[in-house]
């Protein structure tokens, strides 16, 4: 089992670590407040988020819309008519009708996608439930559903809402909700699965990527599970999940040792009952919140905790966040910030507002993390993959914009509907951004003493001393200045945000 962290080891460094990993970082005041709560109180302040008010009304478009579904069908009908058109004149007319309809649909899709991405980033930065948003981000990367194929922001909004509601709950309940989620039904083609031709995509990814991992199932398990999952479908008129019994294969199947006229829910119960299921999902959570894949002994300990909690995530996370293993030296210094973590933590530490929606969305995009559009069914690789020559240069450039204001974003590498429009809007908005307010970050005494200033900024942004080489660079920059103006201090902060130490949490 995991070892509880001794009370003597709970201090501001441990509190800062919990703040960064269970949330998105914060100010020295946030760290001090958390440290004073003690370990139990600090962990509870993250995990017991259901008691915290969070009033975020859904956007106007986040509801079933018959006209939206009808619009998509009209485009599909035009495609079918175009394929049968006999004359060039008829083809030209249909092509123009399709272009106009697609342009309207694409514009709405791009605007709604941007709104949803920006509102989520704002919720991470300023919302009262940081762990709920952190868990939601984990599940989004784990189930890795993309707007580029779903092409319906309402469905993506619904899936993210499911992660918020169930992300700290029971594993089987969450997996079942995701399996019949409209966005997932489209993403892995389950909505098209029929007993005559079962689609294996969801059955395969459920075992390989969501719940067991490679080597813990057979091809026969996949094909039989796909048969059991037939009948899960989507009602396009109501934009909701619908079970269609006449699509379901009622025959006998054998999956992971279980035999009978299995249904989809039966298969999910068989999957999560496998001992490997607990090892797999707790290993993924450990990698996201703590460090690299756990060693075998730690993996077994994590799985044992999860099984003892009846596969409920909240009690599992409570034990993990209170464990000595979570606060080991290796874990506390060993995680590269994802683009989302980088931006949100920078905003929180700088005590500045989140940049305008177009800017915030484009910032994480240029760093390689498009919310609502993971790169593939495996999600984001994370770790060292976040750092390339281009993305590191983008981090330095964006640090300057966040601190100094009025900058130009680098070229987008983003994906998804309306990305070119978002990039153009972002550059226009970035040129009007205001700089940070220096007096919210430093005291008058620190302004007058370079050594005190550096120590204060190190504590705020790095939680550890700079290397002597980097510290000397900053000393050399400050040396010619008899009196430090706001821009002088902003430049020092910008340089700190460009250090290797700031890229790690």
Describe what you observe in this structure.
By secondary structure, this protein is an all-alpha fold. It is globular, with a radius of gyration of 25 Å. Helix 5 crosses helix 19 (357-366) and helix 8 runs antiparallel to helix 9 (171-179). The model has no long low-confidence stretch (mean pLDDT 91). The strands form 2 sheets. It has a two-stranded antiparallel ribbon. It has a two-stranded antiparallel ribbon with strand order 3-4. It has 25 helices and 4 strands. The protein has 4 domains: 7-47, no CATH class; 170-334, no CATH class; 339-430, no CATH class; 440-503. Strand 1 (232-235) and strand 2 (240-243) form a beta hairpin.
In a nutshell, what does this entry contain?
With 505 residues, the chain is mainly alpha-helical.
The overall average pLDDT, rounded, is 91
Compute the CA-based radius of gyration. Answer: 25 Å
Q: Determine the strand fraction and express it as a percent band.
A: under 5%
Q: Give start-end ranges of low-pLDDT stretches.
A: none
Structural class assignment: mainly alpha
Give the proportion of residues in helices: 55-70%
Overall geometry comes to: globular
Using DSSP, what is the number of strands?
4
Distance between the termini: 26 Å
Total of domains? 4
What characterizes the major β-sheet? 2 strands, antiparallel
**Could you spell the SSE succession in H and E letters?**
HHHHHHHHHHHHEEEEHHHHHHHHHHHHH
Query: Going across the major beta sheet, what is the strand order?
Result: 1-2
Question: How many helices in DSSP terms?
Answer: 25
